[in-house]
Amino acid sequence: HLWESRRVYWIVSSCISSSKSAAFGSAGSTIMSALLLHITGLLSATLMPHTSAELPKGIHSTPWYHEKRHCGTYYAGGEYKWYTSECESKLPYACKKYLTPRPHDLYKNWKYQTQSSGKLQKEEFSWSEASAACHRNGGELMSVNSLADAEFLVDLLDHENVSEAWIGMSSTFSDSVEFQWSDGSAVTLTSWQRHEPNINLEGSDLCVSAQRTDGNWKVRPCSKKLFSVCEPPSIPQRFDDFDGTNEPCAENWVRHGDYCYGTDLRDQTFLQVVDDSSCPPATITNRFEQALINSLISSKIIPGDSYFWIALQDINKTGEYMWLVDGKEHPVVSFTNWDIQEPSYNGGCVVLSSGINKGRWKVKDCKGFSAKSLCKKPLRAEEKKLNPQEGNMDEACAPSWDTESHLHHCYRVFHHEKLMRKRTWQEAEDLCQDFGAHLASLSNLEEKRFVEELLFTMFKGDRKRQFWIGFNKRNPSSEESWEWSDGSPVVSSFWLDMHSTDDSNNCGTYRAHRGHRRLAALNCNAQLEWICKIPKGVIPKNPDWHIKDVPWVFYQGNNYCFYDLNADFASAEFVCGWMKSGVTSILNRAEQAFIHKRIKQMSKGKQKWWIGLVNEYEGFQRWRDRSSVIFTNWEKDPPRNINRSITEVEKQCAYIESDTGWWSYSDCLSENPAICKTNVMFKIEKHYGPVDNDHDQQSGICPEGWLYYANKVAIFHEFLHVWSNAI
Predict the structure, then answer these.
(1) CA–CA distances in Å: residue 591 to residues 362, 456, 555, 595, 657
(2) Which of 302, 328, 521, 527 is least surrounded by Cβ atoms within 10 Å, i.e. has the fewest?
C-alpha cells in the first residue's frame, strides 16, 4: 500500500491473462505503470478515467491507425518516457481508489456530482476577495479541468439562477499573458466564449468568469464584483451523489446525472422504435450529453457506418424539428449537432452517426430507413424540462425594439435610412453585441413569421433589401455546418434556402419580401443592413456610437413617434412640431393597420390617440398638412361644414381608438396621447469624421440645463417675462 493524499494505490506485478483487465487503458510496456510515474515524480496530473492530463514534452508516439486503439504506457528502464501501445496488450497496471472521508461539517452545504464538487458564494466579491473567502471555507476557486467539471459548473449556476461567477483562472498584468489556475493545477482544458480571451483591458490584471448559458469563459477586470464558485481541496466521494440519489442503472446501461443511457442494436424504422417502451429514443440537451453519447456509441464495436435513432422529428412536416417524448411534442430544442448540409428536408426523423462524423445528426425517412436506437430513461418519474433559458414573454421591449406577446425576444431592424453606412456580417454582429444582443436567430416558425411580417411591413416587400441574420458557417469546428451566432439550435431546414455553389458564401441574409427563398447565403464581407435580437427583460446597453433619441418607428419611408403622454390637441401639435413633424395623417388602409397595431400594443385598455384632422377645413376634409383626405375609417360619418367658418367652441379634433381602430372626434381641449409623423430621417449613429464646414454644425456637450434635439439646443426659463424682455 502507498498512501498519498487520501488515495490508495494497488500494483499488480504479474502479467494479466484476462483480456478485459489487460485493456484497462493506463498500462505500460515491460515494467510500466502510472504508479511508477508518481514514484519518480514525473506524474504532473493523475491519470484517471474521464480526466485530462498535460503530456510531458518527452512523450514518444507511434503513428495512429484508425482501426486500432492505443493507450498510454510508461517505460521505467531508465529513460522515464511515455509511449503508446495497443490497448489489447497484456501488461501490469495500477489502480487508484478514493478513501471514504470522515463526515465533516465543512462540506455540509457543498454540491457533489460524479467527479466534481463546488459551492456558490452568494455574495459579490472581486476575484481576490472571492479567492480569500474560498480559503476561509477550506476551499479554492474552482478549476475546470474536464468536461465533467464544465457540466457541473453549468448545472450549479443554472440551479442557483446565477448568470455569471468567478472561477479560479487569472493572469497578472505583464508583457505576456499566461492564464493559470489558482490551485496550481495544469491548464488541460479551455472553454472560451467567442472573441475571448479579450486581453485589451489596459493596465489591469485579468480574471476569468464562467457564464450560465453554456459554461464558457469570459475575461473580466479582477476588480469587478461577481458571485464565485469554490471547490473543496479533495472530493470526499468518488462517483456517488451526496443527495442520496445513488440509484443504479440496469445492466449494460450507463448513468449520467439523473438518466440512464443504453442502446438497442436491432435495425428498426423510427415508427417501430417509438412503440417500444423498453428503449425510449433519447433527447440530447447539451454538449456534455452529446459527448457522453459519443463515448457510448464508440464502445459498440460495429463494422462500417451505423446510425442510431434519437427522439427528434419534424412531426408536422413544416421544417421545424421537435423532440418527441412519451408521444408528446416538446417544441423547444436547446441543442443540435447537425452534420454538413443538414437538416436536409422536411418531415423526416433524425439519426446520429457512429462513423467518420461520429455523433453528427442526419435526417432520414421515418418509415423507409432502418437504424439502431439510442435509449434514455429518467431515474425519477418526471423528466426535467427541455426548455432552455429564454426571455419572459410578459416583459416589455425597450423603445425602438419590436416583438409580439407570444415571443420570448425583442428585435430591432438597423436600416440604411438611419445608419451612416451598411456593414459586413462580423461588423453587424459586433454592433449587436454592443447592445448586449446578437444578430437575429430564427429558432422556430413563429419567429420566422414575425420577422417576415416586420420586414414586409416596413419596406413594402422590397426584394432588393437584404438584412444580415445570425445564420453562418464561419466556425472552423462546425465542419461546414450552419449555426446561429447566439448559440441557438438549428431546428428548421434552413439549409435548403442557403444552398450556394460559391464556397465563400458563409453568412445568411433575410430578404424583405414574402414568398420562397427569403433566406440566402452571401459572402460575409458584403455590406448590408441587419437585424438584432435580445431576450425580453434584458435592458439593451447604450453603446458610445449610438444616439439615444426620440424612439421613432420607421414605416415605408416615414418616421412615427407614439407620444403616450396625455395633452390637448394644440399641445400635441406643438410637441410634434418641436420634433420636426406633425400630427399624423393616415393615407391608406395599410397605414391604418400599421398605426392601429402599434397603439393597440401600447395602450392599456381602451384609449384615444390624436390624429391630424380638425373640422375647420370643410368638416374634416383636409389633414393638418393641407393634404386631402382620401381614406377614412369613421365609426360614424361626421357633419360637413359647407361654405362657413366655425367658432372655437365648435372646433372638433379627430382621434383613433386603440381597441377598434375606428375614428371619431371630440372637443380639442380633451387630453389624449398623440401620433407624430415626418419624412425626415434621423441618424442613430454618431458621426466621428471631420466636421463639414459647409454646414454650420459643431459637436460638443450641452451646457447644464439645456436640451438637445436634431442638432439644436434649447433652455426653458422659469421666470415670466413680456415678449420684448424675453428676447
Answers:
(1) 45, 13, 8, 6, 15
(2) 328
